[in-house]
Amino acid sequence: MKYVQEFRDPKAAKAVLAAIARVADEIGATRDKPVHIMEVCGGHTHAIFRYGLDKLVHEGIEFIHGPGCPVCVLPMSRVDECVELAERPEVIFTTFGDAMRVPGTRKSLLQAKADGADVRMVYSPLDALELARRTPDREVIFFGLGFETTTPSTAFAIQQAAREGLTNFTVFANHITVPPPIKALLDDPHMVLDGFVGPGHVSMVIGTEPYQFIARDYGKPLVVAGFEPLDLLQSVLMVLEQIRDGRAEIENQYARVVPAEGNPASIAAVEDVYEPRPTFAWRGLGEIDASGLRIRETYRTFDAEEKFGIGYGTRGRAVDEPEGCACGLVMTGRIKPPACPQFGKGCTPDMPLGALMVSSEGACAAYWQYGGARAEEPA
User: Per-residue pLDDT tens for 168-209?
Assistant: First the structure.
């Protein structure tokens, strides 16, 4: 397939929707509750709402929105530490754009910039590296944020900085991994999950093997999916067929992009630069063992936490969510965004309380933009 239109063909979509309905009816004949399918990735959440797939699929299917938005799961204490670093007069703090407006307890990075901090949006850690080369009299910090998708690029930048001997470039590392929070959700007795639509971009890097425990230990199917409408519909059908047949396997719908073994060069770079943290705090999920990454001793001179004495190992303080904010409940799929008492009232894209409303992969942003759920917006 060469053209994106082929992944959005209405005739093909209707055929897959009909197959989904048939299989859902077969499953429904043996149970009295909906099939709960979690799309782990925030990009999939936005695609589902953009194309109205939640309204097109069989009524016996309910999508549960997972914690696959790295900006959203970052606790407010880490945002506070970003602001603290950015406000140092010797620092140029660089970050991806979707992290600029995430609120901390005092302010966001965008507000810190308005107050005089030197905060700059970049498109790649290599942009930050180039900035460090051009401004040797300033400390350039890159906000390393994201799942396995973005971790390799930060690792490559650190390796390059080491080769060049740059002394004014560091990374504030907040990279996290997908399998541990999925395990935490499966261990939660309050979560009812029948299967997963697995992340496509993350799997491009790590492959499919890291998900095997989901099928082996928990008996749940996972299908790695692409991001076009037909990708997602076919993946839902594949999950349903496994449930109907009593199977639990890890399947790869996105095989045109995702190799089973992942990307060896990226995996090697990450293993060279990073090691698992003993624990890492997630918004809504709490502390999860070995779910975050920290910079290895070999590259510790490029670790902003070590250089500036901030973050894990110094305070590790917990910060409560704003009153009435239900980001944690939405992030873990316990409620849908409109059920949050602040949705469209105290929390809007213009005045967000939580990251889920401003992140490009946030569930609240998806409902706001595509879900038509703005009735509660204040006049």
Answer: 999 999 999 999 999 999 999 888 999 999 999 999 999 999
Give me the number of domains the chain comprises: 1
Instruction: Look at residue 216 and tell me if it is in a domain.
Output: yes
CB 275 within 8 A of CB 61: no
Query: Structure pTM?
Result: 0.90
d(CA 54, CA 373): 14
Alpha carbon separation from 336 to 46, 60, 105, 328 (Å, rounded): 14, 17, 24, 11
DSSP 3-state of 320: coil
Domain around 238: 1-370
Q: Is 40 among the domain residues?
A: yes
95 in Cβ contact with 109 (< 8 Å): yes
In a domain, 348, yes or no: yes
Tell me the β-bridge partners of 224: 198, 252
In a domain, 200, yes or no: yes
- What CATH code is carried by the domain that includes residue 12? 3.40.50.11740
Q: For residue 377, which of 353, 359, 368 has the smallest C-alpha distance?
A: 368
* Secondary structure of residue 313 in the 3-state scheme: coil
